[in-house]
Structures are given as structure tokens and as C-alpha cells.
Design a protein that fits this description.
With 76 residues, this protein is mainly α. The protein contains three helices and no strands.
């Protein structure tokens, strides 16, 4: 007994409609897509910041606390 194409169609449709086949196909597509993403992913190199020369700190002028306190007392 030899199967013809007409005999294969119901078998093929039954195979495609089986839930185990559907889950397997979805899992394979997901895994292959993720593997393709991992293979093609390229991390951009970090940009190196040029070293800036350290400027000398500005000389601090001492604040005159006595004058500041006098002004606040006058305002009250």
C-alpha cells in the first residue's frame, strides 16, 4: 500500500493541530530569536573622557561674619 498526497494531507493537518507540536515550534522560534539577538548584539565601547588639567583652587576670601550679623540685626 502506497500513500498518495491526498492521504498525507489529513495526517499533516492532524500533526500541525497537536498542542505539543505548536508549543515546540513556538519554543524553538523563541530560542532561535534570542540566540540570534545574543550573537548579533554589540556593546558600544565606552567613550574615554579626556583628562582635564586640575586647576589650582581659588584663594578663599574670608567672609566677614560680623558684618553679616549686623545686617540681619538691623533688618529685624
Amino acid at each position: 500500500m502506497q500513500l498518495t498526497i491526498k492521504d498525507y494531507i489529513p495526517i499533516f493537518l492532524t500533526l500541525i493541530k497537536d498542542w505539543r507540536v505548536i508549543i515546540t515550534i513556538v519554543a524553538m522560534i523563541t530560542i532561535i530569536s534570542f540566540a540570534n539577538f545574543v550573537v548579533r548584539y554589540k556593546k558600544h565601547p565606552q567613550k574615554t573622557k579626556s583628562k582635564k588639567s586640575v586647576a589650582a583652587p581659588k584663594p578663599e576670601t574670608p567672609a566677614k561674619p560680623a558684618e553679616n550679623q549686623d545686617k540681619t540685626e538691623e533688618e529685624e
